[in-house]
UniProtKB/TrEMBL annotation:
Any one Gene Ontology cellular component term annotated for this protein: plasma membrane
Name of encoding gene: lnt
Topology with respect to the bilayer: Multi-pass membrane protein
Protein species of origin: Ornithobacterium rhinotracheale (strain ATCC 51463 / DSM 15997 / CCUG 23171 / CIP 104009 / LMG 9086)
NCBIfam families, alphabetized: lnt
Enzyme class: transferase
Membrane-crossing residue ranges in chain numbering: 6-33, 54-73, 93-112, 119-135, 164-191, 203-221, 521-543
Keywords on record: Acyltransferase, Cell inner membrane, Cell membrane, Lipoprotein, Membrane, Transferase, Transmembrane, Transmembrane helix
Stated name of the protein: Apolipoprotein N-acyltransferase
Length: 547
């Protein structure tokens, strides 16, 4: 048993040591092998409760993977003088993510074990990548979305290995990882069972499957020419506001004045876009969307751009909209004490001297902070508990359309992503499909201090650049603000915890990649095949019970 525990420990550490930004992703091609050895050995053993033991050992592996890879979540509190309540909130969010995600991964692995026992090795090992991609697809789309550890993300720091994500997306990386693990495992297991000829073939197949996509990717990388129908000068602002003690406690006037002063330093006569972080203003206040053109803070920015008539000013902002009616206007509306309703938005706006104000509302929300999951079911059960742990019993309001900001000053068409949205591949591709010729990410990565959190966030944005072959710009509250080219290279960046601006050229590209056109085809095929095999599995159980 201790040998199995050691194998589970090794698997967990291999996952951790393969992850961005300090890891080496080659290790992820070996991380499933110890678990597959455990599963095979336990399946052939004579003792009972095999499934429970396999579940327990895989849970041990995935707890290590989750707990160590995003331990930075536990730092979501002020760096100094954090209250007990703030520490509890951070640790609750961290442990909730670790436990739930580890359980889901373990259940997926257990289900693979059941399928293999029922249908044999060929269908069983074919099912593992299907069920894993199903889990990752689930994490990209449900209310508890948390795709941070989707296996395709492992190559974010080694983006030269995965230039073919422009065809498959990051889910293609997941398929690649699991297939290589299975081929290598089958080779090792064949040697253990003294089937050396077959073992050698499987090891060669595994190594070939590992190296061929890397080699092909380097060829794609070296031969890719940046597409540029036009280039525009962009200035990114990094105001460096403490999200706990400054950003949401200072007056809107003070925050906006600092932002505009910073923009003034960065703008040249050639600047065509100024891009500002998530919820950059107005501090304690909100922008009112009922008559957004007349809002006080919007008027302040309009006054600023009159002195820079060539500039599009794109900024994140806190916004509200009021509804003077008796009936609830939408599921996320909040009833006000004096009657009527309001919606809260994590919004982005584009302003210039010629066009009407354009807005976009963040639509991939952080569970517990911006989103109450499955509100109609869980709110009656968990409302008070969520409040006790610092969560929200309400949700921000989102939108269905993936809006693209266009303008009459230049040909730039911007995908105005907000923070968390930048880790959702197919979601981002919808903006590009709607006409975006470059991608902007307004983000606030300061919640976790100087940890791996903001570094991993930056690396993941490189994958969106490759998938869509679009320049990506990131305006981050405290960093890391950066320009990323269409191959996923970070062209220039502003270090974390440094106040300032970053100026650079962005290349506009309107060509669509196969991934942009088709989205997560790998995911859809996996869902269909996993669904068919799952249906056959349960049908066989029902028939067996009847007989």
């Amino acid at each position: 048993m201790w040998k199995s525990v050691l194998l589970a420990l090794i698997a967990g550490l291999l996952f951790v040591l393969s992850w961005p930004t300090n890891g080496f992703p080659l290790l992820v091609f070996f991380a499933f092998i110890p678990l597959l050895l455990i599963e095979r050995q336990f399946s052939e053993a004579e003792f009972g409760k095999k499934g429970l033991k396999i579940f327990g050992l895989s849970l041990f592996t995935f707890l290590i993977f989750n707990a160590l890879t995003y331990s930075w979540l536990s730092h979501a509190h002020p760096e100094t003088d954090a209250t007990l309540s703030e520490l509890q909130q951070a640790w609750f969010a961290y442990l909730f993510a670790v436990i739930v995600n580890s359980l889901l991964m373990s259940l997926a692995f257990l289900f693979f074990h059941k399928i293999r026992l029922k249908f044999g090795n060929f269908l069983g090992y074919a099912f593992l990548p299907m069920i894993w991609i199903f889990l990752e697809k689930l994490h990209l789309n449900w209310d508890f979305a948390w795709p941070w550890l989707n296996l395709g993300n492992a190559f974010a720091s080694f983006h030269k290995w995965v230039q073919w994500y422009s065809v498959t997306g990051a889910l293609g990386g997941t398929l690649w990882v699991i297939l290589v693990n299975e081929f290598l495992f089958l080779g090792i297991n064949s040697f253990l069972e003294h089937q050396k000829a077959w073992g050698k073939k499987m090891l060669i197949l595994g190594i070939f499957t590992m190296l061929l996509p890397i080699g092909g990717s380097y060829i794609m990388y070296n031969n890719y020419v940046e597409k540029s129908e036009q280039s525009v000068e962009v200035v990114l602002l990094q105001p460096k506001l403490d999200p706990y003690r400054e950003k949401y406690q200072l007056s809107g006037d003070q925050i906006l004045m600092d932002l505009l002063n910073l923009a003034q330093k960065g703008i040249t006569d050639s600047t065509q876009f100024v891009i500002v972080p998530e919820t950059a203003f107005p501090g304690l206040d909100n922008v009112v969307l009922n008559d957004v053109e007349s809002d006080y803070y919007i008027q302040r920015i309009k006054e600023f751009v009159r002195y820079h008539p060539q500039v599009n000013f794109i900024s994140g902002m806190d916004a509200v909209k009021f509804f003077n009616q008796e009936e609830m206007p939408n599921p996320t509306a909040i009833e006000m004490k004096n009657g009527g309703w309001l919606n809260h938005y994590n919004a982005v706006a584009q302003l210039n001297t010629k066009d009407s104000v354009q807005t976009y509302f963040k639509s991939k929300l952080v569970v517990g902070v911006e989103l109450f999951p499955y509100m109609s079911v869980l709110k009656p059960l968990l409302g008070d508990a969520m409040l006790d742990f610092g969560g929200s019993v309400n949700s921000l309001t989102t939108q269905e359309e993936r809006s693209v900001f266009s303008n009459t000053l230049n040909n730039g068409k911007v995908a105005p992503l907000v923070c968390y949205e930048s880790i959702f591949g197919e979601f981002v591709s919808e903006f590009v499909k709607n006409g975006a010729n470059f991608i902007s990410v307004s983000t606030n990565d300061s919640w976790w201090g100087n940890t791996q959190g903001h570094k991993q966030f930056l690396e993941y944005a490189k994958l969106r650049a490759i998938e869509n072959r679009r320049d990506v710009v990131r305006a981050a509250n405290s960093g890391i603000s950066a320009f990323i080219n269409q191959r996923g290279d970070i062209v220039k960046s502003l270090p974390y915890d440094e106040k300032g601006f970053l100026r650079g050229e962005v290349h506009l590209n309107s060509e669509l990649t196969p991934y942009t056109k088709s989205g997560d085809v790998v995911g859809r095929i996996a869902l269909i095949l996993a669904g068919v095999m799952t249906a056959f599995y349960f049908m066989s159980l029902i028939l067996k019970k009847k007989n």
